[in-house]
Amino acid sequence: MGRTMTETHTTGVRGDSGPEAAQLVASRILDVPDFPKPGVLFKDLMPLFADGVAFREVIDGIIAFHGPESFDVVAGIEARGFVLAAAVAYATGVGVVPVRKAGKLPRATHSASYALEYGEATLEVHQDAFTAGHRVLVLDDVLATGGTAEATLDLVERAGGTVSGFTVLLELGFLKGRERLAPRPVHALLTV
Ligand SMILES: O=P(O)(O)OC[C@H]1O[C@H](OP(=O)(O)OP(=O)(O)O)[C@H](O)[C@@H]1O
Ligand SMILES: Nc1ncnc2[nH]cnc12
């Protein structure tokens, strides 16, 4: 019983912030086969979040890549994007906006339904979440098919924000999320 977990292969890694950042992320991912459903190889980034030195390095790396003056607010995608967004917001002194799964936000929302690698979901953001024209840095842990990210970027714009950047720690390149989001740029610390 139980799943077999293996470390992600760490030679020849690549990412938009260079091989050292890519290596850092790669070395702290656990591969979990058949989660949350058979046939899916789940990339678990909890070991990276749990390592204080590595976590600080990736947060600092995200801020350095975009520049601390390039955004007015950070948006995090439920649930793992919340961890990244809160850290970047705190470090740069801006606010954080949660983009949440359906039914969690208490006031009027914009809503978008989408398919992701292993299911379907709906995301929501408060209609008054952003000051008009504010530049929004959007953060999540993984880019797979891009369904989640596409829905989120649309929601940010529908709520009056301007997407200034989108960062993930890990891009699953074979699922072509980057192509789906084009011409919007994607910043991924590690692409596998
Ligand atoms: O590119 P996609 O195919 O859309 O998949 C990427 C999304 O899937 C995961 O979230 P999940 O919906 O599992 O939510 P969770 O963080 O609440 O577990 C991940 O954190 C991304 O948000
Ligand atoms: N394979 C995967 N691992 C972790 N998060 C994901 N989100 C979508 N696909 C994923």
From TrEMBL:
A GO term for molecular function: adenine binding
Compartment(s): Cytoplasm
EC number: 2.4.2.7
Principal EC category: transferase
Main location: cytoplasm
Pfam families in UniProt: Pribosyltran
GO biological process, one term: AMP salvage
Keyword Glycosyltransferase: yes
Keywords in alphabetical order: Cytoplasm, Glycosyltransferase, Purine salvage, Transferase
Assembly and interaction partners: Homodimer.
Family, per entry: Belongs to the purine/pyrimidine phosphoribosyltransferase family.
PANTHER family: ADENINE PHOSPHORIBOSYLTRANSFERASE
Name of this chain's protein: Adenine phosphoribosyltransferase
Organism: Micromonospora humi
Name of the gene encoding the protein in the UniProt record: apt
